[in-house]
Amino acid sequence: MEPTPEQSPHHAYPDHWEADVVLRDGGTARIRPITTDDAERLVSFYEQVSDESKYYRFFAPYPRLSARDVHRFTHHDYVDRVGLAVTIGGEFIATVRYDRIDGQGRPASAPADEAEVAFLVQDAHQGRGVASALLEHIAAVARERGIRRFAAEVLPANNKMIKVFRDAGFTQQRSFEDGSVHLTLDLEPTAESLAVQRAREQRAEARSVQRLLAPGSVAVIGVGRAPGGVGRSVLRNLLGSGFTGRAYAVNTSFDAGTGTVEGVPAHRSVSEIGEQVDLAVVAVPADRVPAVVADCGESGVQGLVVLSAGYAERGAEGRERQRELVRQARSYGMRIIGPNAFGIINTAPEVRLNASLAPESPKAGRIGLFTQSGAIGIAVLAGLHRRSAGLSAFISAGNRADVSGNDFLQYWYEDPGTDVALLYLESLGNPRKFTRLARRTAAVKPVVVVKGARHSGTNPPGHAVPVSRIPDATVSALMRQAGVIRVDTVTEMVDVGVLLAGQPLPDGPRVAILGNSESLGLLTYDACLAEGLRPRPPRDLTTVASPRDFRNALAEALADRTCDAVIVTAIPWVGEDGEAETGDGEVLAAALREAAATGPAKPVAVVHVEMGGLAQALAAATSTAAPPAHRPSGPGPQAPSAAPGTPGGSAPGTPAPAASDGRAGAPGDPAASTTRAPGHPAASPGRAPAAEGAPSSGRSPVSEAAPSPGRPAPDAGRIPAYPAAERAVRALAEAVKYAQWRRQAATPGKVPEFLDDTIDEHGTAALIGRLLGPDPDPRGRPLTHDEACELLAGYGIAVRPALPAPDPEAAVAAAGQLGYPVALKTTAPHLRHRADLGGVRLDLAGENALRRAYDELTDLLGTPAELRPVVQAMAPRGVDTVVRASIDAAAGAVLSFGLAGAPSELLGDTAHRLVPATDRDAAELIRSIKAAPVLFGWRGSAPADTAALEELLLRVSRLVDDHPEVVSAALEPVVVATHGLTVLGASVRLAPPPARSDLGPRRLPSY
Asked: For residue 86, what are the contacts with CB-CB under 8 A and spacing of at least 6?
């Protein structure tokens, strides 16, 4: 017999189980626990379920629910019996329920760890991924309540439900008993279940963005009756862009007889339109937005772009208004861009959407741009328009209360129309997810990021997201680890984007420099050295060089197997008539394009001075010339060649690029420009062979629009031009580093298995449990020296013993126990690790030296009680280093490394990697600090044992990854000798582990 709520331990309503999720088709729904107030909703839901679905659920005809059924399905104790519902518009569309059972299948309570589970999904919503999302959430709830396995009975004909269980990725067993399929699922997450979950998340979130960017119909709400105003401007921009779908003007103030506005149907509400509206652009005062959202939701609108201001950027009241806006929109299954947004643009020829305040759309291109700032968006769009540059999509998300940069990374990951993703970010709502998505996207196409508000320590007004305390230098290092190209300015972002969109990735850092100015060549040479490139001596063509000379020199440089990229420098040259050639630069542009088209696929950039005509010619250049039959490549990975009948071609397994024209440049600088080389292969990085784990096809499952065959990509092969050598070289240097990361990402590093033989994971977990106690302080506690040493020993990390020396006699006794020579050190917090303050005495060879050092310390720095001196045996000489690990609630666990001492701290010379670190991460970590040469035999010194140091880093990484209760650990100093290393000091802090939202079931953030 089933226990009643009175018989079972009753828990309060678990509001943390509530979650908004994105379904397979891109719509949203809410998952929440079922309560006693849901009786009418449950009955209404059941009435809309088909007889067949009811039969699959109850194994018999079950036309209606009895009063007892309704009571049973709405009364839960949230421990042994739990029910969850999926709602849209406040109404149920699906339910799931589990009941804890014992070994004989009878109702039970803890410690029984198995439960029977059953689903029911309304027929109209089957196929949307509802049951899969429900399974993730009910499994997480069950694990929280101590349930480890689910049992389910499914009729053999119920193929959909069997597939849900089969595809979940959990370890499972199947058997056929009494005419039904008996399934048992182990609820412990596996690598497969996590991969399945993240793949579903990617498809759903990408689809939700695709619905916003490619609507079949758009309603602009808030269109004024007279010309002017935000709504009217957006409508004009929408129509001016040539939008291919249907457009409507909406304003509650329209007269009943208003037929059209700007030539499109005018209505007083969305519900009056009488046809499907996919996207609504909201431009009404904030106090009127709730009524608009309700009207859109009731009318089946799929997404909103909210331009209205007056939300989180206005303070606490505005933040609450913003939260309510998101809750209301999601309750209807809608996603939001904004509020306080500038709008969105999609230049795809089959869409041509400009739902923004930008009066003109940029030309079509292959760069995707996301900004959190309308002002930055305006500046970038204006600059791109002046230079005829192209974008695939533009999004200015404003307060980004819902749709964020993470969602667009999900979309761009498989979007065949985007080769480079540019993002201007002022805050990271979910840094763990961002780095995960950025790493995956960067494996197939470049991701270039500018991070604003780097040093303020707060989020910009309107960004209601958790504030991360992680330093900006650490954020930058973590982005680099994920393959993100982090730049400092918007100009640099576009400079890099232009190069990556139009040129192949370089095979290495070797750069050829040629041009008609020796001085400009030398400036370029110096800039290359400063950026870590390996330039060849500049080739001076002299000021009398003709365009033909440029063409021949570029062709030779591209054919040279000892260079990986070419920078062409140009100043006005002397023509045949003896006068300086400044002209429109078309002759030189054509010569450069001809050389680039016929040479090996290597990146080419142009630096020009006082040749605005050349820049314009490069920006405006297009080509319809037939591609060469074959274009040889230099050493290293071969660039893909053009497929027959497709000038520009594409890499194997990727779709032909979209057909349109455009490029990107630096905002406000018409001198940064590009040109296409005739017939240049489509060798842009977005179409290069994918790294391991990347999709095998560039075609997005969320966009089936195929480009026209035989037409070239709008950006591939364009030669970028820059008005300063430093800008061109910096962009090329970023491309070199990104290309190196791509090559390494193709074969990811590993955590060495040999560590498992020396690690006691279970013993360390038991020790942590004892140290924290049954009711740990949420703030945590620091471990004593002995406790820290015991914990670290469980992971094979030995700390050199240090004995307390409260007086000279105790110091002498400790030295006698440890053996001379010894070190005498203070451990007071204000002197710890501060050798520069005189708190350390080394190489004390005997008792007299020790007593003398003790007297000096106490005379100079204070009493023994204040100094807390200790005695420690001397370690072999080596390089003093510091290894740290800490957990940031937003970013996750971070492993850090640097040299010990004040100089490294003052200069911020510390490297960082996300945990878990691989063997490659550990090797890169110690080599990425500026002072790394000290470890490798600098100035004739003996090289340190970096292999031992890498192993130590991996052990610390494994410790904090296995035990999130270790919220910080610091090993300082770690003396790395020629053979082996010695850990001389350690501190560890334990605390209850922070929540890991990235490991739980899929859910949208709620700020």
From this structure: 29, 30, 31, 92, 93, 94, 95, 125, 130, 133, 134
- Model confidence over 910-963: pLDDT tens digits? 999 988 899 999 999 999 999 999 999 988 889 999 999 999 999 999 999 999
**Residue with tokens 């079509």, as numbered in its chain:** 364
- Beta-carbon contacts of residue 262 (< 8 Å; ≥ 6 apart): 223, 232, 235, 236, 239, 249
Q: Is beta strand 721-722 parallel, antiparallel or unpaired with respect to 986-990?
A: unpaired
CB 839 within 8 A of CB 829: no
> Which amino acid appears at position 993 of this protein?
P
Cα–Cα distance, 311 to 584 (Å, whole number)? 50
Tokens of 71: 């009571």
pLDDT digits over 644-695, tens only?
333 333 333 333 333 333 333 333 343 444 443 333 333 444 434 333 333 3
Look at phi and psi of residue 842 and say left if phi exceeds 0, alpha if psi is from -120 to 50, else beta.
beta
- In 577-651, which ranges are continuous DSSP H helix? 586-598, 612-620
Amino acid, single-letter form, for residue 187 = L
Is residue 277 a contact partner of residue 300, using CB atoms and an 8 Å limit?
Answer: yes
pLDDT tens digits, one per residue of 811-837: 999 999 999 999 999 988 877 766 667
d(CA 982, CA 874): 10
d(Cα 698, Cα 416) in Å, to the nearest integer? Answer: 6
**pLDDT by residue (tens digit) across 245-261?**
999 999 998 887 778 99
CA–CA distance, 561 with 547 (Å, rounded to integer):
24
User: For residue 647, which of 710, 573, 562, 565 has the smallest C-alpha distance?
Assistant: 710
Local confidence band at 454 (pLDDT 50, 70, 90 cut-offs): low
Beta-sheet strand order (sheet of 335-337): 260-261, 264-267, 246-250, 217-221, 279-282, 303-306, 335-337
Structure tokens at 452: 């604003």
Q: Are 678 and 593 in contact (CB under 8 A)?
A: yes
For every residue of 643-677, DSSP letters joined together read PTT-TT---TTSPPPP--------TT-TT-B--BP
- Kindly state the greatest CA–CA separation across the chain: 106
pTM score, two decimals?
0.83
| Closest residue by Cα to residue 223 from 202, 245, 249 | 249
The yes-or-no verdict on residue 637 having pLDDT over 60 is no
User: Do the Cβ atoms of 355 and 343 come closer than 8 Å?
Assistant: yes
Tokens 């109850």 identify what position? Answer: 58
Q: Taking the CB of residue 66, how many other CB atoms lie within 10 A of it?
A: 9
Those residues with Cβ within 8 angstroms of residue 84's Cβ, 6 or more apart along the chain or in another chain: 17, 31, 32, 33, 34, 95, 96, 97, 134, 137, 138, 141
Mean pLDDT computed over every residue of the chain: 84
CB 250 within 8 A of CB 269: yes
Instruction: Give the type of residue at 935.
Output: L
Distance CA 524, CA 89 (A): 61
For tokens 């065959």, name the residue: 709
**Which ranges in 419-471 belong to alpha helices (H)?**
431-442
Instruction: Extract the tokens encoding 810.
Output: 């105790």
463, pLDDT greater than 60? no
Coil, strand or helix at 203:
helix
Dihedral sign from CA coordinates of 454, 456, 457, 463: negative
Please check whether residue 700 is in contact with residue 415, taking contact to mean a CB–CB distance below 8 angstroms.
Answer: yes
With CA atoms as reference, report the closest residue to 351 among 252, 243, 457. 243
Burial class (CB in 10 A: 0-12, 13-18, 19+), 156: exposed
Q: How far apart are CA 435 and CA 695, in angstroms?
A: 18
Contacts of 199 (CB under 8 A, 6+ apart): none
Rg (CA), the chain: 32
The span from the first CA to the last CA of the chain, in angstroms, equals 43
Category of 431 on φ-ψ map: left (φ > 0), alpha (ψ -120 to 50) or beta: alpha
Contact (CB, 8 A) for 542 and 569: no
Neighbours of 856 (CB within 10 A): 13
